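B., you asked whether I could sanity-check this one before it goes into the benchmark set. Here's the sequence:
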Amino acid sequence: MPHKIVRPPGSTRSRTLGWLALWWIETFVVHGPGDVQGEPVRHGDEYSTFVVDCYALDADGGRLVDSAFFSRPKGCDKSGLGSRLVLFEALGPCRFAGWAQGGETYTFLGQTYTYEKGEPMGKPVSTPYVRILATEEGQTGNVYDTIYFNLTDGPLAELKAYGLDCGLTRVALPYGGEITPSTAGASSKDGGKETFVVADESHLYNTKALREMHSTVTRNLVKRKKSAGTWYLETTTMYLPGEESVAEATYKYMQLVEESMQAVANGKKPKLRGRIRMLFDHRWSDLVDLSDEQKLAEAVAEAYGEAMDWNSLEGVVDKIFDPRTTPSESRRYYLNALTEASNAWLTPAEIARVSDGMPVKMGGCLRKGDRIALGFDGAQTNDATALVACRIEDGTVDPLLIIEKPDGPEAEDWRVDEVAVDAAVAHAFSEYKVEAFFADPPHWQDRIDAWELEYGERLAVKAGHDAIRWWTKRDAPMALALERFHLNLTATENGAPMVRMSANPVFVRHMTNARRWPRRGGVVIGKEGKNSVRKMDAAMAATLAFEARARVLAGGEAPEDDFVPFKVGARPSPPAAGERGRLARRAALRQRLASMQ
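And here's what the prediction gave me:
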């Protein structure tokens, strides 16, 4: 089931203030404006688990989570969840107050909670300042609307007798502190005393001012982190790639978190420094073909999860089938799935299909002695350098080495570790039967000279005039190689992928980052922009490895340009009619290119 939960190391659902939080919320909080306005809140297992995870503690009672991310489709009460946590943070026993011996009690507005032995006890934050971020002037949003209703018409309205003052723009809390909705301009003017922040629908924070608002406010949390255990919550629906929203940045950060966790598990140095303190909870569906009503209904139920209890399945399906809703909008808003950028080379769904269930360790797809082809692309002082293998037998693509330029101060005067690259190449030749090796030479002329001297005679197939050199700047052959690789990656046989690739998160990120760019000789790939920090060099290396494999399968000759996926020892079935037209256009293009050279 597509439901990813990543918790900070050491998090456990038995050592948490979350159970107390659930009792408090379900005792004192009601639903805000809407069909169930005024009714008590009741959480199912899924939302309860998220709240429990938010309040996980370490062995000393310290908070483990300093930021939480909750991603669901439209209509999943994300704003309501945010408002309930705001009320608990402002008025409830939300910070550690010691371990219970058993039988201790907490009483609030006439209701009593009894602690079990060993359970963490709670106390309120001293002078809490809770901020709710808004995207426009005058817009308080769904989060504050629910808070306002609770403090004026719900059980918590009793606190007016103790000094609670609830206005349309700010709440003054009974014992000091406040709840404040604020916009980009307002948040930058305040002194930064926040103890808890909610950024609702963070995929909308896609302008410079809104990104700076989020950065400023979350940075302010550090000022009271030690004394008040500060943290923040993001709720969102899937972001639109390329908008550089706060939600997109969080997704990218989570990729680095997973890569770092994988590195630690393999005994390697993690890319991220410091403790991982983020809770990430994302639910979605990978369904691509929205035409089958039964499969679509199952996908909607899968993406909505617990929220299907208060949503109409038929209504959501009808909205998706409405011709005014584009397929991309449907996948993004109602399946909460990552939609591709307009010029993405591969869609996230395509990458997920060919990498699902595959090993994440580099080289983990290969067996000792496998016949392979190698591809190499990279830089010396910028971007990334990658060595990728492609198994001759079935076309499986697996990175053997990816080295990326670090961010921050470490990037100054940085150069790629050539010894590590040499070692990876040597290991490939000793561990596997390397039959072809295509390497892009611009930044690695001397090393490729050395590799050709050392390994050239061992190769069954040469790259061209030279044993290893293969220039990616030649647009026409590069475009042909990319299309061959792309068609094989996206082809299926009996519903299964024809070619598989490693699920290594760094490699997947590089493949996802590749963008299509038209050139005179055809469509090639590159970064989303010249100065983009999103690296995709491993996608180029993978293409070279796959092209080297195609050369091996063609007996050393240039592969036929039919681009039909094939298996070793078998000719492909004739292409479908639509594909024949595509092949005819490609053949005409090849003839035209040949006449130009």
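One thing to flag: Residues 561-580, 592-597 have pLDDT under 50 and may be disordered. Otherwise nothing jumped out at me.
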